[in-house]
Task: structure prediction
Amino acid sequence: MKILSPRVHGYIDYAVAALFLLAPSLFGFGGFPETLCYILGAVHVGMTLLTAFPLGAAKIIPFPVHGALEAAVGVFLVAAPWLFNFDEAAPAARNFFVVSGVAIGLVWLLTDYRSAYATTAASARYRSEHRSFS
Result:
């Protein structure tokens, strides 16, 4: 069930980026998890600004590609505490990353990445390149 429109997804994206940038201060963790949060927040803002959807500025990345990248990020976030060995040393960071990954996964599941509302030159170009002729 795809209940999130591209516009609503854009608002969520900017909120997620802000949360990543504020999380180390809000939840009191530092070190590598803090650095990773700042990198993820900056990358998320950049990707959102470059996405071809109503709240994107440059409209370069097709919205379905944006969705695929977010799905991968959701999985990465859940695994990050164990990949980078801060699962026991920083429980606040571990919990933040796991909850964030699950939340991004839910947003991915609920977003309509093929919405006509997101149609722009970039997403139209993506669809024409990936059209099935069967």
In short: The longest strand covers residues 51-52.
